Amino acid sequence: MGAEMALQIIDRRLAGKNKSVGNRERFVRRYKTQIADAVRRAVAKRDIRHIEQAENITIPRKDIQEPIFHHGQGGVRDTVHPGNTEHVRGDRIARPQGGAGGGGGSQASDSGEGEDDFTFTLTKEEFMELFFEDLALPRLLRTHIASTLQYKTRRAGYSHDGTPHNLAVLRTMRGALGRRIALTKAPNRELKELQDALADLLAQDDGTSEAVAELQQRIAGLQARMGKVAFLDPLDLRFRSRTKVPEPSSQAVMFCVMDVSGSMDQSRKDLAKRFFILLYLFLTRHYEKIEIVFIRHHTQAAEVGEDEFFHSTESGGTVVSSALVLLDQVIRARYPAADWNIYVAQASDGDNFGDDGGNCRNLLAEKILPLARYFAYVQVAPDEQSLWQEYSQLLPLFPHFAMRKVAEPGDIYPVFRDLFKKEGVTV
Amino acid sequence: MNPSQYPVLARRKGSPHWKVPFSGDRSQRDVPATPRPAGQRPNQPLPDPSDWTFELIERYHAAIAATAERYGLDTYPNQLEVISAEQMMDAYASVGMPVGYRHWSYGKEFLATERRYRRGHMGLAYEIVINSNPCISYLMEENTTAMQALVIAHAAYGHNSFFKGNYLFGMWTDAGSIIDYLVYARDFIAQCEEKHGIDTVEQWLDSCHALANLGVDRYRRPSKKTLARERAEREQREAYAQQQVNELWRTLPARPDKNSPAQHHERFPKEPEENLLYFIEKNAPLLEPWQREVVRIVRKIAQYFYPQRQTQVMNEGWATFWHYTLLNTLYDEGWLTDGVMIEWLSSHTNVIYQPPAGHRAYSGINPYALGFAMYRDIQRICEHPTDEDRRWFPDLAGTPWLPALHHAMQNYKDESFVGQYLSPKLMRDMRLFSIHDDASERELLVSAIHNEDGYRNLRQTLSQQYDLGAREPNIQVWNVNLRGDRCLTLRHTQYQGRPLSDDVQEVLKHAARLWGFGVQLESVNGDGNVPVLLHSVPAPPA
C-alpha cells in the first residue's frame, strides 16, 4: 500500500561522482590521433606563455557517428502536426527548404544534434597529458627534489639569544614578572611579619626599645634586598627564533637562445619555436613560476620580447658566443643559480663565424653548464659544422647537456621525447 | 522534466511473473471507481522553504503517497536518491542505466551533454527514474522543495506505476533483474577486454551496436529465465551453440537420398528472421564463444529498451497527469501553499508546452503535451461526455474514470493508445492537421485537418507515426548461401517508397564483421516483388 510502503531516501551526493570518467577516457583514447592533431594545431597558434589552457577539440561528425539502419530522404511520409491556423484539406504547400524540416518533422533529428561537427572541451590537464604522457623532467628526481638549493626561514619557538629586532616583548615581560614574583615572595612574607611585629611593639611602648630598632633594621635590610631584584634581567630576554628550512626551488627560468642571422629562415624559426614551446610546457608541469628570457643573436646578441624574437629577421653573419656571453651575464645578474632552476634551449642552424665554436664550447663548459640544470641544443639544419663538432665534445663531460638535429616539424616531438626520456637516461 | 529520452528499466522481483497473465485486465490491485475519501484536513500546509531537508522530503512524500493510494496507483516501493548535478550528467550519459559496460559511445554522450549543459543550451532534467524494484528516482540537490515534491509525484508515483502496470514492460523487461544483468554484462565485457584486448572488444561492440535496433524480437514473446539460470547456462550454451553451428555448416557430403533438388532451393532460414543479432548469435559459424556472448548481451539490453521506445507518449503523459492530479488534490485539501503551487505549475506549463507547427521552437509533437492532454481527455469523456463523445467512445463515456484511465495505461502502447483514444475534441483543441509528403511531388499536400472528414484520417496517421515498425526500416535476414561463399542476404522491405539512408554501407560492414563472411542487402519495393541488390560487402579480412 502506497502510504505504508517503506520509503528509502539515500544521499548519494558524496558517492560515485564521475561515473562517466571511464567512458570519457575511452572516447579520448579512440580519437587520440584526431585529438592529438588538434592539440598540435593549437600549440602552433598559441604563444608560449599561454600554451597551457583547455582546448576545444572538434572532430568531424561523420568520424564519430555510429551508423545504424534508418530511412533516408525520399519516399512518402504522412505526418501530423499541431497548431493549424490556415490550412484546409487539399491545400498545397511549398516544400520547406532544408530537407525534412517542418513537413517531415518526425524524422528530423534522431541524433538530436544536427549536422555540426562534434566539439568538446579537452581539459587543461588532458591537453597537457597528451603531450607529456610519458615524459619526466630530466634529473628531476635526482636533483630537483632531492637536492635542496633554496631555504626558507620558519618560526621555531623562542630562544635565549638573538638580535634585538627579534625580541619577543610579551614573552620577555612575562618571564620577568615570573622571576620577580619568584624572587620576592618569601621576603615579602617575612617583611609583612616583621612589620606586623613592629606595629605591635610600637603600640606597646614608645618605640625606643632595642627590639624595635632591631626590627627596623631587619625591615630595612629586606627592603634593600627586594629592591635589588631587577625589573628586567638579561635572563628574561626571549627572542623569536627562526630556523632555515630547506625547500625545493619552485621557480625556473628558461632561456631561449636563437640564431636570427640571415640563414635562419621562417620555417627554421618555426621549428625552433616548437621546441621552445615544448620545453616551456614541460617546465610548467614542474615549476610554479617560470620566467622566459629570449636572447637572439647574429653577430651581436640582444635580449628581446617574444614577438620580436620569432618574427624579425636580421641579415649578416653569426657569432654564437655573443649570445652565450650575454646569457652568462643575465644569469649572474638576475637569476642566481641558488634560487632558480636554469634551463637553456639553444636553436641554431649550426652556422658560426670562423673559430668561434671553440669559444662557445669553453663558455659552456666553464661558465654556463655548471649553473644550468639542463642545456639542450637543437640544430635545425642537417649539416655538421664546427659548432656541432665543438659541442659534441661536451657530451661525455656533462650529462645534462644534450644536442639533436631536427629537420622537420614531425621530428620535434620525437627529439623532445628523446631528450627527456623517462628515467635513467644519461642524456 | 525531460526523462523521456532516457530508457527506464523495469525489474520484477519475487513474484513469478510468468504466471501473471499479460492480456486483458492485469491490474494487480483493485482500482477504485472513484477516489477513496480524504483523510483529515491538516491544520496548516506543509512548510515550503526553498531549501529542502530530508525531513521535508519525507513529509511531502508521505502526503503524496497517501493521495496516490487513494487513487489506486499501484507502485513498486520507492527509493529516492539525492544526487548532484554532476551525477545527473553521469546518469544522462549512461542512458539512465545505473551500471553499464565501458564504451566510448557513452563517453561521447557524456561529453556532448556536458558541453550543452555548460554552455547553457540545456537544463538538466529535474529527475531521472530507473525502473527497478524498488523503483529508484533521482532527486537533484539543486531542486527546491516544491520541485522535489513535483519530482516525487511525477517519477515515484507516475512513472513508477506505469512501469508496474503497462503490459509491454511486463512482457519485455522481466527476465530476472535488469540491474543484475547489467552488472553481469559489465563484468563480462571487462573480462573480455582483459583477455582479448580493449580494441578487439570495442570493435566488436561497435558492430553489435550498429545492429542493436534490429536485435529485438518484435512479435515473439521472450523466454522467461531468471538471471541465475542465465548465468549458469552460459558455458553450457557456448559449447552447445558452437556444436550447433558446426552442424549447420557441416561439410560432409549429404547422403544421396537427402540431396533432393528441392533442397537446393530451400532458403536458410526458412522463414525470414527479424532479429539480426539473434540470428548471428545462433548461426554465425566462426564466432568465438565470447563474441557470441557479447552479441547476446547487446541484444538483451536492446530488448530491454524496446518497450520504452514504444510508450513515450503514454508514459510521460501518465506521469504528468498524475503529478498534476496529485498535487492539485493536495492543494485542494490544504496541504500545499500557494508558493509551492505556483512554482511547480510554472514548471508544468513549460513541460507541456506545445509550440505550433512553423514556430521556431517546433520540433514535432511534444509527448508530454499529447500524453497529458489525452489522459485528461479520457477523464473528461468519462465524467462529462458530450454527444460526440458518446458516438465515438460508447464504451467509455459516462463510466468511472479511474478504472478507465488505468485500463488505458495498462493495455496499450503509443501506437494503439492514440489509435484508440485520440478524440475529435482533442484534435480540434490541438488543431491537428496532417501533411502528405511525397518526395516525387513538388509540393506538400494537406491531407486532413481537424474536421469531421479528417478525424479518422488524422487519428490513423498519428497512430502510425508512433509505430516503430514504420519509423524504422524493415530489414530481415532473408537467406544464407549455404553451399557457396556463406554470404548473408538481408532483405529490406520498403515502406511507402522510403529509401535507406546513406550510411547503409557502413552498417553492412559491421554486419559482415559479425557474420564473418560477405553480407549483401537487397530491397523489395512495396508493390513490385523483384528484389534489387542495394549493397554488397565482402567478407571481412580474417
TrEMBL record, chain B:
NCBIfam families according to UniProt: PRK11767.1
Organism: Comamonas koreensis
One Pfam family recorded for the sequence: SpoVR_C
Domain of life: Bacteria
Protein name, entry field: SpoVR family protein
Residue span(s) of domain SpoVR protein-like N-terminal: 51-469
Domain SpoVR-like C-terminal: 473-525
Lineage start: Bacteria, Pseudomonadati, Pseudomonadota, Betaproteobacteria, Burkholderiales
Stretches for region Disordered: 1-48
